Amino acid sequence: MHFSKPLSFSLALASLSVTHALQADSIPALEEVAVVANRVANDNSASSAATLATALRYDPVLDVQSRGLAEGQADLVIRGASFESAAISVGAVNIRDPQTGHYLLELPIEPTFLSSPSVALGSDGVLAAQNATIGAVSYSLKPVEPQAQLQGAWGDDQSSYQSLRLASVLAMNDSDIGIRLAATRSSSDGSVANGDHDFERLNVALQRRTDSAQSDLILAHQDKFFGWPGAYTGFASLPETDHTKTSLVLLNHRQATKAGWYAVSAYRRSLDDDYDFDRRTQEVGVPGSFDHKTRNWGLGLRGKTDLGNVDYEYAVQYQADKLVRSTDLTEGDFRSRQYISAVLAPTWLVSGDAADWRFKAGIVYQDTSQSEPFWGALGSATWISNALPLQLTLDYADSSQVPGYTALKSRPTGLFGGNANLGREESAQWSTTLTYQAAVGSDISVSLFKRTDDDLVDWTYSTSQPSTRQANAVDLDVKGVEVLWRASAGDLAWIVGGMHLTKNADYGSAMVDASYYALNYAKQRLTAALTWQLDEQWQVKLDNEYRRQAHNPLRSGADTAYVGSVSVVYSPVDVLELAFIVDNVSDEDFQRFPGSPAARRSASLQVTLNLR
């Protein structure tokens, strides 16, 4: 594989787009970060300080499959895809983990620095995601606002967490200079034996903002220890632990232009991981210790440029990673990779008397230094009624990714067996979405979707030998329907979501009859987020999830579950907020990962002082 010609094409595309954008006669004001309505009610947890996973737990589109509490460890699954099929995007770049998708959400960024998450799927997902077949959860960086906040919570199981957030803005002649700091600690003995956690997180950020641009620098570090029985093995008799140290440097610049906008992002991330499947044993740094360190960095450009009557959406990313050291990821013949991707998607509008049509068509290129290149297509057609607040979208997208180091470089036998012969995964997505917006803040959408995954990586096993698992390729045919309803009535607001999924799997010649990940999915899932503003001082927030999971022979207990979280918030004065938070109000014992016990009911009192 050679990058020279594709890289030249990508750079030429980027140069043309940005150069044309900068030739504008006048620069418009920078658009505020798109307001994305929260699809959950509670963005705080009863037993841990908030992480990115906290506000995703009850999202109707995202399935956060947690090992114990979501802030300890959680996999991100979208529309029945694999836990390694999604991306996290900040600005114009994906921040990924080269070892395993289990650490996708291990981002040490303070959640309050980021916008509400938006989910990009299909043709939009290809523009937002590199090396991810299903799409991306995308974030923007919020403008800095003056702040001095102290927050603490204390609850059962000896849980406690505290946060300090400080921010200041200095007004200059043509710009505002902002600085913010956030420091957080959290600990708990856990709602089950050996389910403890202890983590600290520190963020420092600088921002320069003008009428037409915003530049950000974030320095972040997190040191997190969590324990959970059977977390990765599925055997609750094993008191597993995972200790990660994650550092991140992120640069982002967003610029508004007369012809559109563009964003440039760069990052450097390192993760030091010490996993132990039995905390009672003494590690000696030999195979079986599961100690790993990875380092990765990336550069991304994304934007939209108006050339005549056509808008050109584009995205270019270059990334590189290295497996710095590992006691167990020793198979295969490479320890580092480079990745490049480029997407160009012209969009144009055709106006009519009864309705308008918006069309998009584009090409996708992805390659790595250790694989063959991938070329794909994307396209969409949207019918927009001029008589009714109604639109219908037909969408198609090709996407691809390569497996991580755990799948490729683990030894081929044992509980976490790898497979050095795994190749590129490819996916094709089709969807039809009907959206009706009854009023501002009130809409309903129905999506029908179909996806074919070729050579998706899954960990499989035989029911006669459940302790011997291996990474194998599977072809999946996924079909589903997704419904979202958002509305409000007076002081009550709600978002209701529902999803139905079916999967057909073909493992080819692999001698397996059970799946630990790909076939561990919710056949039906219903969510409801409600926020009720009782008066100026009192507020009630309620999140609900009901699911019927596909049967798995390793799971103990029922395949159906109801889980809910509730918080009652009281603000007697502007500077003080009290919140009583309860997670898993029904004390549900459903095993999201077969064999691994659920986090039980927990409650805490949170106190927030807003001193500025």
Structure write-up:
It is a single chain. This protein is mainly beta and 612 residues long. The chain has helices spanning 4-22, 122-128, 405-409; strands at residues 62-66, 74-78, 86-90, 93-94, 118-121, 135-139, 147-155, 160-171, 176-188, 197-209, 213-229, 239-257, 260-276, 291-307, 310-326, 336-350, 355-368, 374-385, 390-401, 425-439, 442-462, 465-489, 492-506, 514-515, 522-533, 538-549, 560-573, 576-583, 602-610. The longest helix is centred in the N-terminal third of the chain and has 19 residues, at 4-22. The chain is globular, with a radius of gyration of 24 Å.
C-alpha termini separation: 55 Å
Shape designation: globular
Alpha plus pi helix count: 3
Average pLDDT reading: 92
Sheet having the most strands: 22 strands, antiparallel, barrel
Q: Which secondary-structure class do the elements indicate? A: mainly beta
What's the gyration radius in Å? 24 Å
Helix content: under 10%
Q: Hey, roughly how much beta strand do the residues contain? A: over 45%
Q: What are the low-pLDDT stretches, counting only 5+ consecutive residues below 50?
A: 21-25
Strands, total number: 29
Helix-strand blueprint:
Blueprint: H1 4-22, E1 62-66, E2 74-78, E3 86-90, E4 93-94, E5 118-121, H2 122-128, E6 135-139, E7 147-155, E8 160-171, E9 176-188, E10 197-209, E11 213-229, E12 239-257, E13 260-276, E14 291-307, E15 310-326, E16 336-350, E17 355-368, E18 374-385, E19 390-401, H3 405-409, E20 425-439, E21 442-462, E22 465-489, E23 492-506, E24 514-515, E25 522-533, E26 538-549, E27 560-573, E28 576-583, E29 602-610
Parallel strand pairs: 3-6
Antiparallel strand pairs: 1-2, 3-4, 5-6, 7-8, 7-29, 8-9, 9-10, 10-11, 11-12, 12-13, 13-14, 14-15, 15-16, 16-17, 17-18, 18-19, 19-20, 20-21, 21-22, 21-24, 22-23, 23-25, 25-26, 26-27, 27-28, 28-29
